Input
Amino acid sequence: MKYRPEIDGLRTIAILPVVLYHANLSWIQGGFVGVDVFFVISGYLITTIIATDVALGKFSLRRFYERRIRRIFPALFAVALVTSMAAWLWMMPSDLREYGKSLLGVALFLSNYLFYRETGYFQPSSELMPMRHTWSLAVEEQFYVVMPLLLMTTAALAWRGRMALVSTLLAISLAACLTNQAGNPDLTFYSIHTRAWEMLAGSFCALWLMQHPLRGSNALSAVGLAMIAFAVFTFDKATPFPSAWALIPVVGSALIILFASPGGLVTRMLSLPPIVGIGLISFSVYMWHQPMITFARLTASHEPSVAFLTLVAAASFPIGYLSWRFIEQPFRKGPIARALSQRAIFVAGGAATALILAMGLLFYLSNGSPNRMTPSRQTFKDLRIEERIAVNTGLGVACRRGFTLDEGCATGADPTVLVWGDSYAMHTVAAVVSALPSGVALRQMALPSCGPIVSVTMVSSAAETEACARFNDAVLEWLGTDPGIETVVLSSPFAWLATPSLTLRHDDGTQEPGNMATAVKALAETIETLQAMDLRVVVISPPPNPGWDIGRCLSHHAQHGESLSSCDFSHDALSAPIDLAYEILRRVEILAPVIWLDQEICANGTCRASADNVFLYRDRGHLSNAGSVWLGAQSGFRGAIEDSIRN
Output
């Protein structure tokens, strides 16, 4: 095929926002759409190459996959090897075990489905996964399994027949994307069947240009560039994606491919040597930038500054150049490439795959090798860090799944106290149990990400939103049967009720952005509804937090044998969501007593992250298991709980 330098320039338009997005730059929150641009380019190039060779009668599947191995495997293997060494040195056992699992997905080109099962792309936890970016590589490779076979088996079809087939498949995939996004946004984000339409858009461009000469249009190609820019600078994590919004960068990319002609304005801009140069190394930059940024986070006690992450992201470009020059290129051009036969390439590819699988299995089956030595000259096992930051589920995992009358989710027969809420209710259970007078039993009713509000639900996926509404309705209905509960303890972050970037759904189906007026009204109505049932109500505030991961900070300093007090933080520097939550609670305190956890954890303007070598926190805001027990032993908390039972 004829080389088009503007396509390499378009790769630059794709890679720059992706890298900067992962550095958390606030002005480029839609940088993730760069992957969509890559998908269109990939579909265009691969279809052009295959369809041309098929038409000339010289296409070979073996040759095609040989070229894919030469293109993908050298950089992929190098990144996996270096990242695995870094993971062995710096990851905690549970993280190393999960990393090992991700290597299995990488080696088998199934990491998109693995990461779907692990975490959403936009969740903070995904920022600590060094290979999460390989999901897009897996999607592309899955496409490359089907597309060659499709073009081979339809070789006898006329051009119109192929265009109709590609258009039909594109429409089916796009329809799947649009219909599944609300119900399961994570699966829609990661799946080949809901992403194929983006690559098929490139295939459509390729087939079109094989039949029609490229007719340049400065206006249409400029519109395409503007559409990509619009998506990059206006989309953010709250934008449903992929959805109809994804049409903007995809159609924009297609317009550039179809109408950026030689000599045109957009072509001249995208063909500038520095722009083309970045595009040429874009694959290596993409492969290296995510592990570099991830380990910049993993090796720091606090969240690195945006300036530092930007420097790390910028460093991925010279690293990417070196990778392109000395790892990618030798397998594609030059004496090494010529010396390696097709058989040797397949053997080398198989060996590389086997080694990545072996590393993944080693890390996974050894449970992250807890006997590794830390800088403190103690092993991870000796430090018990995993235990100290384990998920706090309250009375047990079975008690975090919503409405349940399981005996294991109560501390005794005939409980008179109910702790109701989300994960913030779970992490207070041990404290409440410790503070309750002897003989008073408690029941836990909790569902993650589902605050105890009777009339309003936070909108996430359709399934999760409905599950939350059903859970809260079930709890309220059960309380109406007079099950012997006398006191209801409500706990949640509460800030979600007043966060404008989040959507609230009312019982009547109407929706609105989070706001303070609705937050106060919804919580007040919940309290009053419970009080109308002759139930005492007490609200436990979320613990104070500074916005960074306190549990990670404690783990870091424990591994290095350093003082845990380095993770203490100022009460004057609490995160915006905590300030918001505290303001909501101050406005409803006239209706029900509020137990303010900052009064227990903070003193003289400083909030402690630990106490007598006990981790009080396990992450950004949840109490650890030991931290909850510690809280229950504090006289102020015990007194507040006892007062709520008596009054």
Remarks:
- The first strand starts at residue 417 and ends at 421.
- The CA atoms of residues 146 and 331 lie 25 Å apart.
- The chain is about 55% helix and 5% strand.
